[in-house]
Amino acid sequence: MEALLDYAWLVVVLPLASAVAIAAFGKNLPWKGSELGIASLAISWVLSVLIAYQTFIMSPMEEPVEFSYEWAPMGSEFVFELGMLVDGLTAVMLLLVTTVSLMVHIYSREYMHGEKRFTYFFAMLSLFTFSMLMLVIANNLVQAVVGWELVGVCSYLLIGFYWEEKSNQDAANKAFLTTKFADVGLIVGVVVLSAGMFGLDTSTPFNIREINAAATAGELSTTTVVLGMLMIFLGCMAKSGQMPLHVWLPDAMAGPTPVSALIHAATMVTAGVFVLARLFPVLAQSIVVMNVIAVVGVITLFFGGLLALVQDDIKKVLAYSTVSQLGYMVAAIGVGGYTASVFHLFTHGFFKALLFLGAGSLIHAVHSNNMSDMGGMAKAMPYTFVTFIIGTLALAGFPLTAGFFSKDEILIAGEIWAGAGFATGHLVYWVGIAAAFVTTFYMARACFLIFAGENRSHHPPHESGKQMVGPLVVLAVLSIASGYIFSPVWTAEQNFETWTETEFITEETVYPFAADADEGGEAAGIPGAGGIQGDGVLAAGSEPSVLAAAEDGELTVLHGAPTWHFDLLALLLVVFFAAVGVAWKFYGKGPPDRDPTMQMGPVTTALVNKYGFDAFGYRYIVVPVRDTWARAASYSSNVLIDGAVSGVGRVTKNAAFATYRVLDQKVIDGGVNGAAFSAAWWSERLKRTQSGNVQRYAAALVAGTIVLVVAFAAAT
Amino acid sequence: MSLVGPLILATFLFCVGIYGVIARRNAVLVLISVELMLNAVNINLVAFQNLLFPDELAVSGLMFALFIIGVAAAEVGVGLAIVFNMFRNRASVNVDDVDLMRW
Known about the structure:
The complex is a heterodimer. By secondary structure, chain A is mainly alpha-helical. Helices cover about 70% and strands about 0% of the residues of chain A. Chain A contains 26 helices and two strands. Chain A has a two-stranded antiparallel ribbon. Chain A is elongated. Chain B has helices at about 5-25, 25-50, 60-90. The longest helix of chain B is centred in the last third of the chain and has 31 residues, at about 60-90. In chain B, about 75% of the residues lie in helices and about 0% in strands. Chain B has three helices and no strands. The mean pLDDT of chain B is about 90. The interface of A and B includes residues 688, 692 and 698 of A.
């Protein structure tokens, strides 16, 4: 089994192979290429399950499996690697990505049936999956960036899948450009981190393990850590839909629904959170970085959730809920909830894929995205109804669903963080609870509008086929079951935390800025030179809380096995039932004539206008870029750069002609021809010595003999 | 015994032979001139044999002379045959007329 991990790269390569194969000859196959995608993903999934089994059940390991080969050696001291790094975190992501992707592949067979670009769609799905897996398994940041950008390209292609419509093209462009803008930050951050590594004795400055090791050992300067991680976080903000760079995410609903499921659950928005988790040992060196991340996450989780209130498009409701849930994950990273964040990423992947696929099933049935066109779907579509409700409960964090365990873990992480004296912990805790109310409310609203009341669609709804319902059922089971691997019912020795702990995030790991330099830092072998020293920037006057998980009250990165928090459970139950009750009051009898979320005056105005981000972006970014910068860029490109290039070309051409005329024609050709002509001239004359007259030859012989005799005589 | 006499004789004969080979037009006379040169060498060989080994029974110089006489006979045979063919093809024994092997 151990050797299995060495073949983890197969998980990545198989989707790529299937993408290429589908593109090459998918159209000629009986299932139009979809069987290739499903088969390769199935194999990848089995491998991922085995890898997860190995890393989780068999031996939770601190020493990851890493190997790489030199991709591009730049001299002796600097090597670009191409390799893989498999530890618990990678295994979690592999399992999540392949599971969701496999479900989406199967689901898409029926959902996309009869589309004219069916084969293309499946090739892109496989490529998309490959890109994300490439990012997940990368052992160095350059490779991760490559995977990251491939994810961006694939999302662009899939969001713009129905490219015949201008609005879909615009959505694809928006997604691409927004993420690309932030990717500049990502690349700068990667370069900054590796520049910090250049000072150290290493030939692979991009290696993730070495960066983490250097950061943990405090060898990276504060500037490197803060600047590098903030720039990387900028990239993560766009990819993971954090405000204010979330604007592309709702528009990305223009793509086919299975793609939305894939983007929102597994392959795109999770990339940012994954990179933050991967580099958690680095960002944990600096309270500044963590505070920025926490604040951005909190803003996103609350205000992103609010936006879902006024949406009529079911996919947009889910899109904003994704923004909100990603806010939870990012905020969790910012308050030291490493495990909680990855755990929420894991469970969220399942139930958000479930919700999107359920929404796709509904849309498939009524041919409309709008909830106002649905209603009364519970009877017609029982499987979709039940699974969608399960997904909703998980998303809302109803007790004993997966979302409950993971979201509560985030809230508790905030509580522990607050207990250690950091104000952002309180922020995450209370805003997180408030956002739970918002989440429950808009999901309850959506459910009542969709399933309750009379049917308002123009198509009599019908249950979807087996290939769509099957994935829904599987994901519904996972939406509940996946929560239990990090719950009080699982053992303390083996749970999600021991699974995702890495060599740098162990039970002893503490925060350099939080620990007293005397105790915690040295105990964990961390000098703490990299972080801000002392009790933390925001720590003034607070006392360590008894809630801190470590027994001595010391703040550690890992919080230990979870326990029941009945106070929080009670609070969340109250919040849940309050939100459902309010939603029932307004929407329980079918859609109200005057939707209360649309009657909130300026709040509604702000929400409908999406806080003005789109208008702002259009007015101050799109228009100036399009009308001014683009023109200037076009001028500089067409006139300045092209002029310089063609000028250089012209000079080169003239120089070449001169060379041709003088050097080539005169000197070289002259020499060659001259040699030939002189040979001809001389031979014309020398040939006359061959007269055929024997006596002349004899005379020459005699003369030669005489010359030789005289010469020898003179020599002696 | 003095070597001067034989050497002068040999030189004279050789020079006459060279002159004949180069200057005469008649192929037969060219062959005869070659014989003169060979015999000049023979005189030399005999003279030096006599000078270097007067009392011994060494005959190497004489042996060479005999060889040369033999070779000369063979040469005359081949040469006359060529001259014969020349005459039959061209009705002339003038070496100037035979210059087919030219440029």
